[in-house]
Amino acid sequence: LFEQFFIDGVHLITRLKKGMKNALMLQHDKIMLRKRSLIETVNDQLKNICQIEHTRHRCFPNFIINLLSALAAFSFFDKKPSINTAEEFLYPSFLTVA
Question: A Pfam family this protein belongs to (predicted)?
Answer without folding.
Answer: DDE_Tnp_1_3
